[in-house]
Fold:
Amino acid sequence: MLFIVIVIMDILSSAEIDICVPSFPEIQSVFGISSFAVEFVLGINLLAHCIGALVAGNLGDRYGRKPIILSGLALFIFGSLMCALSPSYAGLLIGRFVQGIGISCPTVLTYVIIPDIYDIKTHQKLLGLLSFFSTLGSV
Structure:
Protein backbone atom coordinates (compact mmCIF):
# COMPACT_ATOMS: atom_id res chain seq x y z
CA MET A 1 0.00 0.00 0.00
CA LEU A 2 2.85 2.41 0.81
CA PHE A 3 4.35 1.85 -2.62
CA ILE A 4 1.05 2.85 -4.26
CA VAL A 5 1.06 6.12 -2.30
CA ILE A 6 4.67 6.72 -3.35
CA VAL A 7 3.74 6.07 -7.00
CA ILE A 8 0.83 8.52 -6.81
CA MET A 9 3.08 11.22 -5.30
CA ASP A 10 5.69 10.61 -7.98
CA ILE A 11 3.12 10.81 -10.79
CA LEU A 12 1.83 14.07 -9.31
CA SER A 13 5.39 15.37 -9.17
CA SER A 14 5.99 14.45 -12.81
CA ALA A 15 2.67 15.77 -14.08
CA GLU A 16 2.83 19.02 -12.10
CA ILE A 17 5.56 20.50 -14.25
CA ASP A 18 3.59 20.19 -17.49
CA ILE A 19 0.06 20.47 -16.14
CA CYS A 20 -0.28 24.16 -16.98
CA VAL A 21 1.02 23.89 -20.57
CA PRO A 22 -2.45 23.31 -22.14
CA SER A 23 -3.65 26.52 -20.50
CA PHE A 24 -0.93 28.71 -22.09
CA PRO A 25 -3.25 30.26 -24.71
CA GLU A 26 -5.83 31.07 -22.05
CA ILE A 27 -3.20 32.57 -19.73
CA GLN A 28 -1.93 34.71 -22.59
CA SER A 29 -5.45 35.87 -23.39
CA VAL A 30 -6.57 36.56 -19.81
CA PHE A 31 -3.49 38.47 -18.72
CA GLY A 32 -2.70 40.03 -22.12
CA ILE A 33 0.95 38.96 -22.09
CA SER A 34 3.45 37.77 -24.68
CA SER A 35 4.15 34.11 -25.40
CA PHE A 36 7.57 34.52 -23.73
CA ALA A 37 5.89 35.76 -20.54
CA VAL A 38 3.55 32.77 -20.63
CA GLU A 39 6.51 30.39 -20.90
CA PHE A 40 8.04 32.05 -17.85
CA VAL A 41 5.17 30.51 -15.85
CA LEU A 42 6.85 27.16 -16.46
CA GLY A 43 10.36 28.53 -15.94
CA ILE A 44 9.61 30.05 -12.53
CA ASN A 45 8.11 26.75 -11.44
CA LEU A 46 11.20 24.81 -12.50
CA LEU A 47 13.46 27.32 -10.75
CA ALA A 48 11.51 26.92 -7.52
CA HIS A 49 11.51 23.14 -7.96
CA CYS A 50 15.33 23.14 -8.18
CA ILE A 51 15.72 25.43 -5.17
CA GLY A 52 13.29 23.33 -3.12
CA ALA A 53 15.05 20.10 -4.08
CA LEU A 54 18.28 21.42 -2.58
CA VAL A 55 16.57 21.91 0.77
CA ALA A 56 13.99 19.09 0.88
CA GLY A 57 16.45 16.25 1.42
CA ASN A 58 18.13 17.98 4.35
CA LEU A 59 14.79 18.83 5.93
CA GLY A 60 13.64 15.23 5.46
CA ASP A 61 16.76 13.96 7.23
CA ARG A 62 16.37 16.43 10.07
CA TYR A 63 12.61 16.39 10.72
CA GLY A 64 11.51 13.11 9.17
CA ARG A 65 10.26 12.27 5.72
CA LYS A 66 6.52 12.22 6.40
CA PRO A 67 6.18 15.72 7.91
CA ILE A 68 8.24 17.27 5.11
CA ILE A 69 6.28 15.46 2.39
CA LEU A 70 2.96 16.50 3.96
CA SER A 71 4.17 20.08 4.38
CA GLY A 72 5.32 20.14 0.76
CA LEU A 73 1.97 18.82 -0.46
CA ALA A 74 0.13 21.42 1.64
CA LEU A 75 2.37 24.12 0.18
CA PHE A 76 1.65 22.79 -3.30
CA ILE A 77 -2.11 22.94 -2.67
CA PHE A 78 -1.77 26.49 -1.33
CA GLY A 79 0.20 27.47 -4.44
CA SER A 80 -2.48 25.88 -6.63
CA LEU A 81 -5.15 27.96 -4.92
CA MET A 82 -3.02 31.07 -5.40
CA CYS A 83 -2.78 30.31 -9.13
CA ALA A 84 -6.50 29.59 -9.48
CA LEU A 85 -7.55 32.76 -7.65
CA SER A 86 -4.85 35.07 -8.97
CA PRO A 87 -6.17 38.31 -10.43
CA SER A 88 -2.78 39.22 -11.93
CA TYR A 89 0.14 37.75 -13.80
CA ALA A 90 2.47 38.47 -10.87
CA GLY A 91 0.15 36.53 -8.57
CA LEU A 92 0.19 33.63 -10.99
CA LEU A 93 4.00 33.63 -11.00
CA ILE A 94 4.10 33.67 -7.19
CA GLY A 95 1.62 30.79 -7.09
CA ARG A 96 3.68 28.75 -9.54
CA PHE A 97 6.81 29.46 -7.50
CA VAL A 98 5.07 28.21 -4.35
CA GLN A 99 3.88 25.13 -6.23
CA GLY A 100 7.44 24.37 -7.34
CA ILE A 101 8.82 24.66 -3.82
CA GLY A 102 6.03 22.50 -2.44
CA ILE A 103 6.17 19.69 -4.99
CA SER A 104 9.94 19.38 -4.67
CA CYS A 105 9.52 17.76 -1.24
CA PRO A 106 7.66 14.63 -2.40
CA THR A 107 9.71 14.55 -5.60
CA VAL A 108 12.98 14.22 -3.70
CA LEU A 109 11.82 12.20 -0.72
CA THR A 110 9.85 9.50 -2.56
CA TYR A 111 13.12 8.14 -3.93
CA VAL A 112 14.62 8.10 -0.44
CA ILE A 113 11.74 6.32 1.31
CA ILE A 114 12.03 3.12 -0.73
CA PRO A 115 15.64 2.28 0.28
CA ASP A 116 14.75 3.17 3.89
CA ILE A 117 12.03 0.51 4.03
CA TYR A 118 12.92 -2.31 1.64
CA ASP A 119 15.94 -4.59 1.31
CA ILE A 120 18.42 -3.97 -1.51
CA LYS A 121 16.96 -6.46 -3.99
CA THR A 122 13.37 -5.30 -3.49
CA HIS A 123 14.19 -1.61 -3.52
CA GLN A 124 16.06 -1.90 -6.83
CA LYS A 125 12.98 -3.49 -8.39
CA LEU A 126 10.65 -0.88 -6.87
CA LEU A 127 12.83 2.03 -8.01
CA GLY A 128 12.62 0.65 -11.56
CA LEU A 129 8.83 0.46 -11.28
CA LEU A 130 8.74 3.97 -9.83
CA SER A 131 10.74 5.29 -12.77
CA PHE A 132 8.33 3.57 -15.14
CA PHE A 133 5.27 5.14 -13.49
CA SER A 134 7.00 8.52 -13.34
CA THR A 135 7.65 8.40 -17.07
CA LEU A 136 4.11 7.22 -17.70
CA GLY A 137 2.75 10.09 -15.60
CA SER A 138 4.61 12.72 -17.58
CA VAL A 139 3.31 11.50 -20.96
The longest helix spans residues 35-63.
